[in-house]
Amino acid sequence: MDTTETARFVTALRSRILAGELPDGARLESERELALRHGLSRTTIRAGLQTLEASGLISRRVGRAGGSFVSLPTGDSVANSLQLVIGAGGISGPDLMETRLAIEPMCAELAAERMGKDGLSELSDIQSEMVSAMRVVGNPSNRQRFLTANARFHLRIAYGSGNAALAAILRGLIDPIEKLIDDPETLGETQLRELVRAHEAICSALQDRNGPRARAVMRKHLQAHLALNGRY
Amino acid sequence: MDTTETARFVTALRSRILAGELPDGARLESERELALRHGLSRTTIRAGLQTLEASGLISRRVGRAGGSFVSLPTGDSVANSLQLVIGAGGISGPDLMETRLAIEPMCAELAAERMGKDGLSELSDIQSEMVSAMRVVGNPSNRQRFLTANARFHLRIAYGSGNAALAAILRGLIDPIEKLIDDPETLGETQLRELVRAHEAICSALQDRNGPRARAVMRKHLQAHLALNGRY
DNA sequence: CGCATTTAATGGTAGTACCAATATAGAATG
DNA sequence: CATTCTATATTGGTACTACCATTAAATGCG
Question: Which nucleotides of D are covered by protein (CB under 7 A)?
Answer without folding.
Answer: 9-17, 21-25
